[in-house]
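ARCHIVE CARD
Drawer: 12
Card no.: 0347
Subject: one protein chain, sequence and derived structure
Cross-reference: see card 0346
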Amino acid sequence: MKKVIALLMIVLIIGTSIVGCSPKDNKEASFPNKKVTLVVPWSAGGITDRVARVFAPLFEENLGQPVTIVNKDGASGAIGTEFAYEQPADGYTVLFSAETLANFQVMGTSELGFKDFDPLKMLIQDLKVIVVPKDSKYNTFEELVEDIKDNPGKVKMSYSGPGASGHLQGLLLKEMGLDVSMTPYGGGNPSMIATISGEVDFTFGNYGTIKDYLEVGDLKALATFTAEQSEILADIPPMTDTIPEAEKYLPLYFPNILLVKKGTPEDVKSVLMEATEKALKDPKWEEFVKSQSYTRLDDLSQDEIKDYWDKYGSITSWLLYDAGASPHSPEEFKIERYNK
């Protein structure tokens, strides 16, 4: 009988200890204990969405909980970003973002910026290439640049829309004294079609999007938007061979990045980070990146990520403002002009 009583007392003590644990400790120790939402602030089927749909199942496998993609498109990613920010800072909402977040404030699309989120990982970026139609008179980037100098405002370039990567790349050419005639086409595909058809003289294209056009001969690549020779296009020179002064602004990536709302607990971020790192080492992810010829950026540290976006925001927000493309001065948001 004494043994039974002693056993019951031990069970009672253990049970009391378990009950005595705070709900907060239990919750944090068990993160995640429900589904995680991956917010993609662009439409289904777009470039960012396609990358997210390869990443999500690998992320899910390593988190041990379902990961659901929610597309919230509009306002260059601002609508989805605001939706993610409105959710609790508990790690159950992760933003699959891109570079547009850096310019929301100066463009007047949202009051949010990178300062309102914590980065988990930079992921990938697509190589940017300057391309012309197959029957273009330009066979080198140097020829294109010389024609722009000889005919200011006459050489036509297409881009998808205000604040997008092509827009910023065109503004960078203007910053360096190349007066190109820039026309928005409302999307990457229409912008590329305008180039293929010869409606415009050139554009900046994502290599993943244009490589098929290059292979069949519908487009010619003149230069890469890099300061160094690309391993992917080893026979195409970097733009700095012709415009060396561009080097101070490069590299200027337009990547995907995983973010959580600022204030998310550190231990929760650690769980998300660990699952992300495992997903990025998965052979399926590595094969996807290789097949699309993407550049991996997941080796950047947290400090390097912050430094990169500070630089990117400084360069691009002032480019937009100086060109009259943004309604707000970067000074309103204490963004200093970039000087290397």
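Annotation on reverse: The first helix runs from residue 2 to 20. The chain has two domains: 34-123+255-333, 128-249.
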